[in-house]
Design a protein that fits this description.
Structural class: alpha+beta
Radius of gyration: 15 Å
Strand content: 15-25%
Order of helices and strands: HEEHEE
Strand order of the largest sheet: 1-2
Number of helices: 2
């Protein structure tokens, strides 16, 4: 997006743009209103977001990563297994496996 205009955003700007979008689209009242998207490096492995914003979140992540890579940058990292998304205290959250990875998914 910004790269097309000749401006190459920093990694911090890209992460902030993504974080701002996500924070505006995590409100929920029940688990069914939440889903996971998997943006990729440098934006993270899994993000819990409102289901009705998932497609827009995936598009934004793709555009931001393209801007990031347009500057010749790249990254990769290993991701932990996640179980899904849930609504907790009015916000969509990522549900992960137990801390030692031996048990079932926990909230």
């Amino acid at each position: 997006v910004l790269a097309a205009l000749g401006c190459v955003p920093s990694e911090e700007e890209i992460k902030e743009d993504y974080k701002e979008f996500v924070s505006k689209h995590q409100a929920c009242t029940q688990d069914s209103e939440c889903t996971l998207i998997h943006p990729g490096c440098p934006l993270g492995c899994a993000t819990a977001i409102a289901t009705n914003a998932a497609a827009a979140g995936e598009r934004l992540a793709k555009e931001l990563i393209e801007d990031y890579e347009a500057a010749g940058r790249s990254c990769q990292y290993g991701c932990i297994a996640v179980c899904g998304a849930a609504c907790e205290a009015g916000q969509c959250v990522v549900v992960t496996a137990s801390a030692d990875m031996s048990g079932p998914c926990v909230r």
